[in-house]
Write a structure and sequence with these properties.
This protein has 99 residues and is an all-alpha fold. Helix content is 74%, strand content 0%.
């Protein structure tokens, strides 16, 4: 117990303890801010992966459209519901039952 009291009264120990408390909780880049930065980075990385996949899909579609005209007609019909003058388009949407 006496040794612990001496340790607490030591000015170097108090200085280091105050510095550690300051850096962990009071600084601009404290532990909480670091956690928030890490979660922000993870969220942005997920968005980056999503958009990278989307870009790859769009590039593949663009390449198909530029190389084959039959694909262009199919693409226009499926994605943009375009039709010829004498045709009717029926869009079927499957609904999931709500429980």
């Amino acid at each position: 117990m006496n040794r612990l009291l001496e340790l607490i009264r030591n000015k170097y120990f108090l200085s280091v303890a105050a510095f550690v408390v300051w850096m962990l909780f009071c600084d601009k880049n404290d532990v909480i801010a670091q956690y928030e930065y890490r979660s922000e980075v993870n969220k942005l990385q997920e968005e980056k992966d999503f958009y990278t996949k989307e870009i790859a899909t769009v590039k593949k579609d663009l390449n198909e459209l530029n190389t084959n005209l039959n694909t262009a007609e199919k693409f226009a019909r499926e994605k943009y519901f375009m039709k010829k003058d004498n045709e009717d388009v029926f869009v079927i949407i499957k609904e999931t039952p709500m429980d």
